[in-house]
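Researcher: I'd like a structural prediction for the single chain below. Treat it as a standalone chain; there are no partners to consider.
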Amino acid sequence: MRVSITGATGLIGSALVRSLRADGHEVVRLVRRAPRGPDEARWDPGRGRVDAAGLAGSDAVVHLAGAAIGGHRWTDAYKREIRDSRVLGTAAVAEAVASLDTPPRVLVSGSAIGIYGDAGDRVLDEDAPPGDGFLARVCEEWEEAAAPAVEAGVRTAFARTGLVVARGGGAWGRLFPLFRLGLGGPLGSGDQYWSFISLADEVAALRHVIDTAELAGPVNLTAPEPVTNREAARAMGRVLRRPALLRVPAPALRLALGELAQDVLGSQRALPGRLLASGFTFRHATIDAALRAALTA
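Model: Treating it as a single chain, here is the predicted structure.
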């Protein structure tokens, strides 16, 4: 199988590349510089340009590129970058896919459970409506931008990913060092749901979506047992054998993070209904298992 991937150097993309290549599949990485070999193709998401020849012959395209949500204060300029990197990039990929004489059989386009907004303790499957707020609006536009591929008849799935548990990046990549020092604890009230997924299960789920013809439209990529932020903090304490009692009040988060604090304090209790219904099996269904997997990876 030949798979073309954007965002191939990111946390999820690099793990997906390793997994596919380990099983003998051909991977083409879309890069923003001049290609350095036959396993790379050029794209420029800001200008809406993709080397369609680099996608030719692909059985699947996995689009994961987008500016980081965390790690930056949400200025107006950075919010535009978050939005444009996703919407313009997805439109470019979808249009390139649709232009091919023989398009791939599937486009797996990145998305996030942020589309549901702050939903409290309400259970969210893929039929739940979009919520309110900046990230929810971005996610809606992000998914809508794939319309050219959908209209061309390409099976298109939206990987609505939760919080990926990994040491090498993402939210947990920033939390592990703090908890190791005994400086971790609940954020805000701690009642907000954090729907997580281990990095290994994220990669396996993406591959399952590629291989499963019935999966199209939104697919929640989250473990089946979401936990509250307080429960996640306690699990970190258990697994790392450190105290996890230093609660960070919501006002302090808002002062330190600005508008980004809304995302940290927001609650999405998402369940992977379509993954489970299609026969996917999680290796790390619980938060403790996901944390231990991250520490041994």
